[in-house]
Amino acid sequence: MNEHHAANKKRWNLAAPQYAEKHDKKGTWRIAHQQPEVVFLERELELMGPVCNRDVCVLGSGDNVAVFALAGMGARVTSVDIAGEQLKVARQRSTELGLSVHYVEADVTNLCGLASAAFDLVYTGGHVAVWVSDLRAYYREAIRILRPGGLLLINEYHPFRRIWKDQKTALEVGYSYFDNGPHQYNTSAELLPDRSSGDAVQYEFHWTVSQYLNAVIEQGVELVEFEELGDAAEGWEYAPLAGLPQMLMIAGRKRP
Ligand SMILES: C[S@@+](CC[C@H](N)C(=O)[O-])C[C@H]1O[C@@H](n2cnc3c(N)ncnc32)[C@H](O)[C@@H]1O
Question: What string of DSSP letters covers 113-161?
């Protein structure tokens, strides 16, 4: 694992209690298995098609609401995340919900613990690629574990939203759109208030729309869908981003 991913793993392990509390307040994880429409867009559900008794893998599973929704739809779900502490929370929650999920602690750029051609659907996104230093390796692995004819469905936060300064007043460019990073942030104050175990540093990577698209189609998949969706402001955003595209959705089918 490279130094950026090792730092991000530490960051997400440290963040697990806060993240769990935030999602307990939000409550989506409690209903996701019964109401997949609170997790997925209608178009995502259409693209996935019936998943009952299908093998599905969620990469960078985080809050695991996508995992719980898919399990509730009858899929056999594997949940992959780099942070064991995130998976521990998810495991407790799935037990509480009575869902059977296979949890795997792994870096999305190296899924050597997962067999090739093992899944009918790989779902990923919602702020995962921003933590990953090698987008091509990430999607190469995603496609390797897909069965021929299987679908890779990516729905990421739109890259146009990542380039602005953290200020409420007006949009001002903080990074060039083409500056992939790594962008380094010290999150010690937020995650290690007593500084007992050193610093917490995270590294973010800003991929462009063409980099997303090329990283998928270079693997030889058939492009099924490429969409930019939504333009609303999200509650947690620092800059006034309403009007900018919110999500980038890419669906590709592994050629038989
Ligand atoms: C913001 S969450 C997004 C995931 C999910 N959509 C959510 O909303 O919770 C990012 C997740 O990606 C995971 N992650 C970051 N880098 C990773 C990597 N290289 N491999 C696997 N998971 C990674 C983190 O541990 C975290 O759980």
Answer: TS-TT-EEEEEEESS-GGG-S-HHHHHHHHHHTEEEEEEEEEEEE-GGG
Structural domains of the chain ordered from first start: 3-253 (3.40.50.150)
Q: What is the pLDDT along the chain (256 residues), one digit of tens a residue?
A: 899 999 999 999 999 999 999 999 999 999 999 999 999 999 999 999 999 999 999 999 999 999 999 999 999 999 999 999 999 999 999 999 999 999 999 999 999 999 999 999 999 999 999 999 999 999 999 999 999 999 999 999 999 999 999 999 999 999 999 999 999 998 877 777 666 666 889 999 999 999 999 999 999 899 999 999 999 999 999 999 999 999 999 999 999 8
Which residues have any ligand 1 atom within 6 Å of their CB?
5, 8, 12, 60, 62-63, 81-83, 86, 107-108, 126-128, 131-132
The answer to pTM > 0.85 is yes
Residue closest via CA to ligand 1's atom 19 equals 107
Residue with CA closest to ligand 1 atom 27: 62
